[in-house]
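Sat 14:20. Reprocessing the chain from the morning session after the first attempt stalled halfway. Input below, unchanged.
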Amino acid sequence: QVQLVESGGGLVQPGGSLRLSCAASGSPIIIMGWYRQVPGKQRELVATIAYGGSRDYADSVKGRFTISRDDAKNTVSLQMDSLKPEDTAVYYCYAYKSTGTYWGQGTQVTVSS
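Finished this time. Tokens:
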């Protein structure tokens, strides 16, 4: 079992920055990442990072968001810059290991003036 605890969401103006963090219990975790969801739409990939450091980003966030992980601390972070109103969503931390897929409780990110 893996528990994921997220932090760092909030309200920011367009063009601003936020940093999301997620702490995971248990190891090793093969892939960690972030997904997001808005009401009425499917949850979508934002970014993932594998244990070896390989990263994957949604096209809509490439060049603006940066994902990183600290395996010693079992944490994953998402630095979000140049935020746009369309980035508004609930962001979920994600972890995949041999025992299955795990999700955090979600943190709200709102980009609005």
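The longest strand covers residues 89-97.
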